[in-house]
Design a protein that fits this description.
mainly alpha, about 80% helix
């Protein structure tokens, strides 16, 4: 749970940066920090802990995904992005269940996600 909270704080901080150079530098720093943690072996420990507490991790992930938009000061752009991410995540989970249970890919399931096709008058 602490790792997810740290990721949430880092993401909120990174998205709050207005200078593109600072954003790139922060992203590079986070990538290098993750690489160093992987080389040291911390990621293996986190993976083992996650495997042992899978249900708590799934619950914490949903909580973090729900709370994240509220850390962005109610920005409409971030709220719509978060809503889109949650819609696609729910669709991916549903498609995973459909494919897993039926054993085949149901493309009609995804066809409804595209949305309405504009008519010639709207173009």
């Amino acid at each position: 749970m602490v790792v997810l909270a740290l990721v949430l704080v880092a993401a909120a901080y990174g998205l709050g940066l207005e200078d593109p150079g600072a954003f790139v530098a922060f992203g590079t720093f986070c990538g290098l920090a993750a690489w160093v943690l992987a080389r040291v072996g911390i990621m293996g420990w986190i993976s083992a802990a996650a495997a042992a507490n899978r249900s708590a991790l799934v619950l914490a992930s949903f909580v973090v995904a729900f709370v994240f938009p509220f850390t962005q000061n109610g920005s409409d752009a971030n709220m719509s992005i978060a809503a889109g991410v949650l819609i696609f995540a729910a669709t991916a989970m549903g498609l995973n269940i459909v494919v897993g249970l039926a054993g085949l890919l149901d493309l009609g399931y995804i066809a409804f996600l595209k949305g309405p096709v504009p008519s010639r008058q709207q173009r």
